Structure formats: structure tokens, C-alpha cells
Amino acid sequence: MSLNTQTRLQTAADALLFTVQKTTSHPEPMQNGEAMSPDAQDSRGPAGQEEHQGAVPSAPPLPQEPQPCPRPRLVFHTQLAHGSPTGRIHGFTNVRELYAKIAEVFDISASEILFCTLNSHKVDMQKLLGGQIGLEDFIFAHVRGETKEVEVVKTEDALGLTITDNGAGYAFIKRIKEGSTIDRIKTVCVGDHIEAINDQSIVGCRHYEVAKMLKEQQRGTPFTLRLVEPKKAFDMIGQRTRAPKSSEGKMVSGKETLRLRSKGSATLEETPSEFEDKAIKKVDDLLESYMGIRDLELATTIVEAGKNKRNPDDFAEALDSVLGDFGFPDVFLFDVWGAMGDGKNGRL
């Protein structure tokens, strides 16, 4: 064989090898429905992946939205008002759970706690823990002290008492009117828990129920009050605390407060606006005038029910849906509606 002939044969062989390698490495797609050769099928990869070859690739998954940062755990400092080490509590969602947490810290029963004040260990009704706790407020728990019984004779229609409750079944005296029947009984003090009337226990009754019972006592007929006074620290002994006539100030600090509710869970909320704050105080005054009770949580709920209503009828309907058990008189509702209107127009 000549050199030229050998060279041409080698060149042809190289060309054929290149063609076979190209076909094996990059099979052509099926044309007009023709089946692919076994060689081409083998080149597609491991069994079970054939159906994915040649498919249009799916879109990449959308990036997940970042999870919202959880709110920090709210931790509050607390002491027993008559004296104790400082404890730390958290994780409560209503007043009953708050009392349970305090009781757990100090190894006492929650039923021992009569009420709590904020930022003062004294029986100061202006600093009573109501519906809101500022995020930096210090909680003082007032516990049961001595029990006492007093005999009362009504000499006029009103006894001169303003009643509130702690949201956990204990009603207590929040105000004593100067010169009234009760004011003349020097053993009765602001902060005393009313445990029984004529030996009938009223533990578990709301403040408006207790006020109604006292109002129904007949003039000239003696009746008995069983009272439990809060345990006092040394510097509080001998005091007969009388709440001033002005309404309670806001016991809050910072822009947010923990709002406690008698029903439902606590929520972290913005502090009330200036209008809402003034309206709440005015409604609390009206509650005392018409019902003999003071309750900032109740006043706050009333204002919230009416602040976006356009007329008294809508307000009365909204109030009945959330506080129908109270049976507020119509004249009270109109006075409250007027007070909220005064607040909105800057007249309070």
C-alpha cells in the first residue's frame, strides 16, 4: 500500500470516529416522532430520569419572607407591699394570672393578694394597678392583714363609699367621702376588702354588685361589714389613707403599656391619646356619680366602644354588646356621650 493511500484511510477513520463520538455525546432529539436508538437512550443518564430530560426547567422557588421578630418577653419587678425581696414575673395575660405569678414568686396563695399598686408600696388609690401597666412600672402586691367587723347604721341614702375590685373576686374601698356615715367610723379605711355584708360572703362579686347591696341597706337599720385590711409596712401603720378627689393619673411609662382585661388576654398597646385619657377620667367620675364605683378598665372599655360612633344610638348599641350586664341607665349613657364629645372638642 502506498503512503498516500494509507494516509487517506487514516484520515477517513479519524473522521468516522469523530462522527460516532459526536453522536454518542450529543444525541439529536427525536424527529417526526421517530424512536431514538438504544445508544441515544443509554446516553440520557440513569434509569428513572428519562422523563425529565428535555423538559422546560421550572422557575426557582421564591425567596421566603423573613419571619417577624418576636416581641421581647416582658419581665416586671415586684415586691410585697409590706416588705420582701424583689421578684421577677412574666408570662401573664390577665389579672388572675398576674396574681398567680406573684404568689408563685413569694410562695403564698394567690387568694392572699387583695390588690396591687404601681411604683409605691403605700395604699395609694391614685397608683392602683388598673387596666394598664407601663413597661417600666414596679408592681407592689398588697396582701391580707387583719380582719375586723364594724356595725354601720345608715343615716342617709349614701354611705359615702366608692367601691372598686381587683378583677379577681375581691371588692374593696377606693374612696371615703369626707363627712359621710362611713367617714365617722374611724376603723374603716381606704383599701379595706369588703369580705361580707351581714355574714353573707361577697367574695367573687363585682364592685357594682357590692355597691348595689350597700345602697339597698335600709336607713336606720344596723348592718355589719366584715373587712380585711391590707398588711402594712412599719411606715404605713396608723395611716387612714383617703384617696384625693381627683381621678387617678396614668401610671404608665414609655410609649407602650401592657393592657390587662377582665376577659381575654393582655395586649401590648400604645398609650391612650390625650383625648382618650381625659375622656377615660371623666367617664370614671361619672361611674362614681351614678353607680358608686370607680374602675379605669371599665371606663377605658366604655370610651373605646364610643370613640368612633357617630350618634348616641350607635354608642348605646355598641356598649350593650360588650357591657350589657351592667344595665347602664339612659341618662348615664347620654352624659358619657357628652363627655366624649367634650373631649374630642377640647372642652375637658
UniProtKB/TrEMBL annotation:
Superkingdom, taxonomy of origin: Eukaryota
Bias-annotated ranges (Pro residues): 58-71
The PDZ domain, residue ranges: 149-216
Chain residue ranges for the region called Disordered: 24-71
Xref: Gene3D superfamilies: 2.30.42.10
SMART domains: PDZ (SM00228)
Family from the record: Belongs to the GIPC family.
Name the UniProt record assigns to this protein: PDZ domain-containing protein GIPC3-like
Species for this entry: Carassius auratus
Lineage of origin: Eukaryota, Metazoa, Chordata, Craniata, Vertebrata
